[in-house]
Design brief:
Number of domains: 2
Family: Belongs to the GST superfamily.
Largest sheet: 4 strands, mixed
Distance between the termini: 53 Å
GO molecular function: glutathione transferase activity
Protein name: glutathione transferase
Shape: globular
Strand order of the largest sheet: 2-1-3-4
Pfam families: GST_C (PF00043), GST_N_2 (PF13409)
EC number: 2.5.1.18
Number of strands: 4
Structural class: alpha+beta
């Protein structure tokens, strides 16, 4: 009998939910060790991952402790996706899947993250940095829109781990770009928009949203990651500025 994998995570960030989505898709049992983002650089988590980034997993079935979401996804696929539900075993497709996973890890994740940081979280507004990362986000979306032309999925004829790796960050794009309420930041990229909606309709993602919402609520956070009681991004920026001033 498969023992549950422990997943260490802080609920607000997108990266852990890539891993949880894959676990849900493959129906691998897991338990979540949820903690606050403020503690990501402190013990006991720093003893799990010296880099102080989530997620990390501990798999009692193989006695493996592993961090970096891309590496975890590849591990889960190799060990637990024995029916190739989210992958292919043919040479070309295997490497194409890894190509897109690396694109997500080196492109989408870092650039969406930096855009969100400089747009909403950084204590000082730096127009040159904001301009750089906003443009990079749109460039990356343009690449995906081109790749997905006349295609349902990135590789082959089914949803794979490569597709799902992009899912959580795409759901946070409005926060990164500070998209006005009611607007879809993916609307200018119809292929990406349709692809995203296909992934969001999957049972695994609906379960992820339920789990994430519960963990966010436990930490006094709204589903969008903003503390309860704060209604707008402007209020959130003011809250962050006040907190940074108090630390000085």
């Amino acid at each position: 009998m498969t023992k549950p994998i422990t997943v260490w995570l802080t609920p607000p960030g997108p990266n852990p939910w890539k891993v949880i989505t894959i676990l849900e898709e493959l129906q691998v049992p897991y338990v979540i060790h949820s903690f606050k983002f403020d503690d990501v650089k402190k013990p006991p988590f720093i003893d799990i991952n010296p880099n102080g980034r989530v997620p990390a997993i501990v798999d009692p079935n193989t006695n493996l402790l592993l961090w970096e979401s891309g590496a975890i996804i590849q591990y889960l696929e190799e060990v637990y996706d024995t029916d190739n539900k989210l992958t292919y075993d043919s040479l070309n497709e295997k490497h194409l899947l890894n190509q897109y996973l690396h694109f997500q890890m080196s492109g989408q994740g870092p650039y969406f993250g930096q855009c969100g940081w400089f747009n909403a979280l950084h204590s000082e507004k730096l127009p040159s940095a904001i301009d750089r990362y906003v443009k990079e986000d749109h460039r990356l979306l343009g690449v995906l829109n081109t790749v997905l032309e006349d295609k349902t999925w990135l590789v082959g004829d089914k949803c794979t781990f490569a597709d799902l790796a992009f899912l959580p960050w795409n759901t946070r794009l409005d926060m990164a770009l500070l998209t006005p309420p009611g607007e879809d930041p993916l609307a200018p990229y119809p292929n990406v928009q349709a692809w995203q909606k296909r992934m969001e309709s999957r049972a695994s993602w609906k379960k992820v949203l339920e789990v994430r919402s519960k963990l966010m609520d436990e930490q006094g956070l709204q589903p969008n990651g903003i503390p309860k009681g704060i209604k707008t991004f402007q209020e959130y920026e003011e809250h962050i500025a006040s907190a940074n001033e108090a630390k000085k």
